[in-house]
Amino acid sequence: RPRAMAIMSLSVVLCLCLLLCGLCPASARLSSYLSSSGGFSGTSSFMDSDSFDFVPGRSLLGESEHTYKVHEAVPLYANKVGPFPNPSETYQYFDLPFCQPSKGVEHKTEDLGEVLEGDRLVNSAYDVSFRVDKESEALCSKTLNEKDLGKFRQAVKDDYYFQMYYDDLPIWGFIGKTEKILRRGAKPEFRYYLFTHVHFDISYNGDRIIEINVSTDPLRTVDITDGDSATVDFSYSVKWKETTIPYARRMEKYSRYSFLPQHLEIHWFSIINSCVTVLLLTGFLATILMRVLKNDFVKYSREDDAGASDDSEETGWKYIHGDVFRFPASPNLFCAIVGTGTQIFAVSFAIFGLALVGVFYPYNRGALLTACIVLYALTAGIAGYTGGSYYRQMGGTNWVRNVIMTCSLFCGPLLVTFAFLNTVAIAYRSTAALPFGTIVIIIIIWALITFPLTVLGGIAGKNSKTEFYAPVRTTKYPRAVPPLPWYRSTIPQMCMAGFLPFSAIYIELYYIFASVWGHKVYTIYSILFVVFMILLVVTSFITIALTYFQLAVEDHHWWWRSVLCGGSTGFFIYAYTGYYYMFRSDMSGFMQTSFFFGYNLIVCYAFFLMLGTIGFRSSLLFVRHIYRAIKCE
């Protein structure tokens, strides 16, 4: 009966998950209600049955198949504007006094991931009909007052860009330009010019749109450096041309626009060079460790066969066989870390699986963030079961506290960070601030999916029959750890443990940061997956080696040390964020700085939990293996 009730409860929760994800018809009512309060609506699928290419199922054009007739109106949606060096500091397009559409501004409803990315699509005043060329078409004539000029002047000074979407294809352009005038014996003078003409080059193949590019005419500008008012005539032009590129390959263009080297072989060579170096060091360390272990096994076997005298004493890691499997302090927190780390590890593998099959193709807006939220919610049972099972094996009784700690260990810091950063975004009136409806959706997902699955997993772990396996008996009273030199303490060991795994990934970190905190695209997920696997292997080996050296000096407090040493790579990654901010980017301003360091802190915390769990599990297997191979009284 309990098992049947658990299955029924799990079924109900999964149905609620499908409801909230927009996969059930009843979700339309909830999505419609929340969209009216600033949330999102619509569903998404990953594949187009006609071209068998990964394209947005919920396109901006509703159920359109992206086919058009000549002279058919194709909407051009304006998304956002913002300073180019600060990718997180974005604002709504009509926060600047552009020409507004004659029918008024209409906002498009967004999916969850699109809202999280700060997309706010609205209709624009441009009339770009299918296969209709236009030469210097007037958009509007606008008289800018002092306030409007101040907005444009500041936007040009801060190097603002705009982003639009045409048939789900993204386009970018700059709002204006800055000229620096040098005069002998005088300070440099800066002049600010506003672009007034936009040109669209669009390629088509049959009845489908394949490519669009936007450019501005440097000769059609207005000097907005001085003055309290100005009359500006905005215009645009459109040029259509036929191409042979098939519709299924139209997104390949955006894969080439990235921060990756011009030749893919250079990127592969740099990654392989780094990985080979790290693997050689790891192999060298593993060889030494195996030789030392072999000598230890031979030594202890000889002592057992010869029958050591009563006055002889055991030394090394065999001496602490009665303490090595003594459970760590704060078992509740320890088990919560292991459970949460296991969940994040499962989410990471699921994300890589989706990436490798092509779900996260260039500019599939919000797909990655949506997948992270849904997968984290659906894998909450893994955290609950793992944490509850280990907690029961360690003799824990307060399982309610264990479940709550497991559920809030990662979500708690994330909530605090999000609350602060969202408040900052609201103060800046940025599109990065989540609407109230979206926040309600995320809370509902956590309350109705994540938390119940964690509880169910905790109950299953509590009732599991698995017993903790220890090859040797644990004594009643712990031995005292002998005095150790300073470099044997926790912090120096963490520094040694985190450096080698970090050196295996630091080259790839630049490309990832340039994509996440820039305007380019990362598409070579195969390289990233190889680097991720090497990171796991190196973390396991270095943690095992440090655990052996710790036991060899008769220090049996290895449980927490293995977690801290395994997760120490997260501290190195966060230190790299400071280096990237100072020397590899042009980011500035309180909002962008807060977003950069705040969300990177959460990512590095997730790395700490995941790699700490990998380090502990690897060390546990190693310790069990070596103590199973010797005879202990």
Task: Please give a structural write-up.
- This protein is an alpha+beta fold.
- Helices cover 51% and strands 13% of the residues.
- It has 16 helices and 12 strands.
- It has helices at 2-20, 27-36, 112-116, 146-157, 252-256, 264-306, 331-356, 367-378, 380-393, 399-428, 436-462, 490-516, 525-552, 559-567, 569-584, 590-628; strands at 76-83, 91-92, 122-123, 134-144, 160-166, 169-174, 176-181, 189-195, 197-205, 208-216, 221-223, 230-242.
- Strands 1, 2, 3, 5 and 6 form a 5-stranded antiparallel beta sheet that branches. Strands 4-12-9-10 form a 4-stranded mixed beta sheet.
- Helix 7 packs across helix 8, helix 10 runs antiparallel to helix 11 and helix 12 crosses helix 15.
- The longest helix is centred in the middle third of the chain and has 43 residues, at 264-306.
- It is elongated, with a radius of gyration of 30 Å.
- It starts with a helix and ends in a 5-residue tail after the last helix.
- The relative contact order is 0.12.
Number of strands: 12
Straight-line distance between termini: 44 Å
Mean pLDDT: 83
Helix content: 40-55%
Largest sheet, strands/sense/barrel: 5 strands, antiparallel
> Nearest-angstrom radius of gyration?
30 Å
Q: How many DSSP helices?
A: 16
